[in-house]
Description:
Largest sheet: 8 strands, mixed
Structural class: alpha/beta
Number of strands: 20
Mean pLDDT: 95
Low-confidence stretches: none
Distance between the termini: 72 Å
Helix content: 25-40%
Shape: globular
CATH topology of the largest domain: Alkaline Phosphatase, subunit A
Number of domains: 3
Amino acid sequence: MKAIMVMFDSLNRHMLPPYGGDWAQAPNFARLAQRTSTFDNCYAGSMPCMPARRELHTGRHNFLHRSWGPLEPFDDSMPELLRLNGVYTHLVSDHYHYWEDGGATYHSRYSTWEFLRGQESDPWKGQVADPDIPEDLHRMRRDGYRQHWINRQDMDTEERHSQTRTFDAGLEFIRTNSEQDQWFLQIETFDPHEPFFSHQRFKDLYPHDYDGPHFDWPDYKRVIEEPDQVQHARYEYAALLSMCDHSLGRVLDLMDELDLWEDTLLIVNTDHGLLLGEKGWWGKSVQPWYNELVRLPLFVWDPRTRAAGARREDLVQTIDLAPTLLEYFGVDLPADMQGIPLGSDTTRHAGLFGAHGGHVNVTDGRYVYMRAPANPGNVPLYEHTLMPTHMRGRFTPDELADLELAEPFTFTKGVRTVRVSGHTLLNPYPFGTLLFDLHTDPEQLNPIIDDQIELRMATHLVDLMRANDAPPSQYERLGLSATGEVTEEHLLVRAQRDQALDAVAPLPDLSDLPEGRLSVRDPLKALLADPQAADVVSRHLPGVANTELLQVVGRTPLLDLAAVATGVISPSALRLLAEELSTI
């Protein structure tokens, strides 16, 4: 028995032909759906990248206890369990987060692995001189943006693109081992994650007139660009999606050639989607986790059931992939694994999803309930870990100064974790608690108020949090009880309605904002460097000069910061800032 997983990052379900997409060119995804079972109600769990991959390994949720980080010493890893039970496991990937501090223990769980360099901000090619960077609409620039333009220089042809080289390596493994048995191959590409860097033949699939600034890397914020710029970025994503489709077709071709459909499980999946202007937003992580981000494409071919062309309506999640692979190879599921094998008769009544410190969300397939913090401070919030690293660095001594040892959780195998104060870059509180009916509002444009439905969904939420042994701080942060029944006194949709409406209020018409020597289009640090402007900014945004936000986005124009920081810079505050700055 063999198994192949083809995993993409930020793959938008609604753009794929099997899910109703009617303009992006992806014929191999349509071909895939004819050969596999297509899942119509697959939801993400923990987000974004590495939290999702922890679920892929462990079959249980990550986000209630910890943010982005490595596998923990007490975690059960699906590839490792396969390896220990005689199944050869191999990872080929250009997803560079695996090789940062916050992902450092995942790849080494496989028997072997191969890493292809160059994606996004991968610290790959060394160049002291600055690269040529065109005029661009990407505003929130860090050192990684410069590195990306250096990397691009060495991927100037389709053959040298890291996605192509990743699939080359995956196909090489298949050809080398096609006559062997008991192996699992994971081909994982960072694409179509931003930046939407593809080559000309894929761009040619989407002809359009555009002579504006370079734009294939939207910031995670509200849409403030012109309509032609927005459409151009969508075409750039679509071109990269078509490149992914071509790479997928190469796998399908080889499965046809070697007749692997007879004895090979195939899973094609992703970690989450990406907003491309829907609901007036770019990206992810800043706004609530709408269905464009969490309702995922999933295709599975199981040679034992041979259900080609089938549609599956059952509610499944990312945590189900690890138990699916273990069950397929006849490996016992660990007691701590909460996912359900996809071939099982057991059904899920509700699914939990979210990011650490953000909304905690639940869906039953019809309703989606997004539970916001009960207090503006989004506290208490703690990290529980024995691997104190963030995405690109270690926890600082200051972060660890007040560490405590927490009591063991049910899944830590009797081991206590370190508990330290956690934080989020942006606070989810301003968005409020939201409830959507997907039957009447599939695009989630009109949140409803219904106490009885909220009570039922909040009960699902609490039940799943308890099943995941959520820390007591999470219940307190959300205004829920760790014990007892959920009652009407716990409901928040109605109480937080006004702030939820304020959060989606549009920014002022940019053409109406006055400009002078200084304006809201200037970087925040530049404004704070001018005494008069600093006084204006400090009066309207007290404390902004001392926040972590300044350290991260100080070079960002104030206008773009307002597009990111919902609840920090309101539309009315932005207008007042513009008016006062224009008089300096």
